[in-house]
Structures are given as C-alpha cells and as structure tokens.
Amino acid sequence: MTSPRHALVTGGSSGIGKSVARRLASAGHTVTICGRDSERLQQAAKELSEQGAPVTSLIADVSKPRQVGDLVREAVETNGPLGILVNNAGRNGGGRTAELSDELWREVLSTNLDSVFYVTREVLARGGIGEVDHARIINIASTAGKQGVLLAAPYSASKHGVVGFTKAVGKELAPQGITVNAVCPGYVETPMASRVRQAYADAWETTEAEVLSAFEAKIPLGRYSTPDEVASLVEYLTTEGAASITAQAFNVCGGLGNF
Ligand code: NAD
C-alpha cells in the first residue's frame, strides 16, 4: 500500500534518478527533482510529464550546502513537507591512485558523500520529514560501497561512506519511524555507465565494446541492470509494507555482488 507523499529525488534528470522519479510519480507521489543544468532538467520534466509522471524541477548543486538549503526550502514551499528523500546524485571518478589530483578526489567525495549528508541534514532540520507518516530516506550507493573497485578508489571510498552513513542514520531515526536504506546498483545502463566504460577503455588502451564484454562476463545474469530495475526496489522501499526495513544496503546487480 502507498500513501502519497512528497518525494525529493536528487540528480533526477538522468539515468537511475529519472527512472525513480517516473516510478514514484506514477505511484501517486508528488515528486520534486533537482539537478545542476536547467536545460536537462526541463527536458526531463517534459519527458516525464508526457509519460504521465509530472514532476517539479529545481536547479541545485547538492555538493553546495547553501544551494541545498535553497533547494529544500523551495521544494517545501512548492509541494509541502517532504516524506521521501532519494539521494541519487552522483558521479564516477578514479584512475591510478598515484596520479589522482586533489581536485578529483574532493569532487568525487563531495558529489557522492558530502551531498548525501547535506541534503539529509537539511531535510531532517527544515524539510518537515519528521511530521510525515511512513517517511523514507533512500540513498543510492553502489556495490562499490561494499567492495573495492579497480582504478576507482575515490568512488569506492565515497560509496562505502554512503553505506556507513545509511546504517548509522537508520539507527538514529528508527525511534521516529523514519526508515533509512541504501540501494546498491552494480552495472546499470545509464549515461554514467558509458562514461565509466570509456574511462576503462582509455586506461586499458582498448575499446568501449571490449570493456562492455569484460564487464558483462563478470555478471552472473550476463547483463547490465536497467535503471527501472533499480527504481523498482526504491519504490518498494517507500511502501508501507517496507516499514520494518531500515539501516540496510541492498544490491541490484545481477548477482555481481552477493554480500
Ligand atoms: P547519470 O550520470 O545518468 O545521472 C546522475 C545524475 O546526478 C545526473 O542527473 C547529474 O546531473 C546529477 N548530478 C551529478 N552531480 C550533481 C550535483 N553535484 N548536484 C546535483 N545533481 C548532480 O548516472 P546514474 O548512473 O543514473 O547514477 C545515479 C546514481 O547511481 C549515482 O549516485 C551513481 O553513483 C549510482 N550508481 C550508478 C551505477 C551505474 O552503473 N550506472 C552503478 C552503481 C551506482
């Protein structure tokens, strides 16, 4: 059963975030998405609306605390207190550790981990989530949050951080009935997945198609997951039936990780 709530999906203009926005809006929730690029946000909002999944779109860089403050204030002013937060915005990033710049390290950590803290803190402090029944926080981590990924130390570190944050905040908010869980995708076909394959192709001096074959060979189901398969678990976690699930991290990865 689903009681309609106001959901904020960060990075909702692309990939997994867009699929989550589509599923939640189709399930009857009021959905706000955010991203940094106004044109891409408008395009996503138009596409979702044409598919019967209307959303409000707001510009915000979630790695910037001041912009996060404005985002949550505007979201609440527009659509009321938040009952669902999906921390989805993220980026890939890595390379040989001896060659990593401070800038790349900070950029990956601030986009993937600091943002989850900033948005969660703001939604708890001023987003009204404590007033809403069946409130949910869902963080899109990664199987890289449970195992090391070759040539991706900053990414793996950031996603391990997201899993740890989820487990700690899940315990903290349990007495209020707010559940906090992480969803850990493996390989999912999105614009980010293509950028990741290209980065490995460059590092290994091969083609993106070869990298794709090598990755698919590692996945027991033999294929990438779809954004909608990830969104489907996110949607389940928002239901009343998922009320006793908190402080967990679930893989959606075709069997890639079984831990
Ligand atoms: P994507 O690049 O298609 O989408 C990422 C979205 O986040 C984009 O809309 C982007 O604009 C937004 N974003 C990035 N930085 C932002 C910032 N600072 N402020 C606001 N928005 C920002 O990627 P995706 O594959 O859909 O990734 C979504 C999430 O899933 C990420 O957290 C990613 O780490 C995670 N993930 C993806 C995969 C995969 O294989 N695609 C695997 C595991 C985890």
From TrEMBL:
Transmembrane segments: none annotated. Keywords: Oxidoreductase. InterPro entries: NAD(P)-bd_dom_sf, Sc_DH/Rdtase_CS, SDR, SDR_fam. Pfam families: adh_short. SUPFAM superfamilies: NAD(P)-binding Rossmann-fold domains. GO terms for biological process: monocarboxylic acid metabolic process. GO terms for molecular function: oxidoreductase activity. Belongs to the short-chain dehydrogenases/reductases (SDR) family. This is Putative ketoreductase.
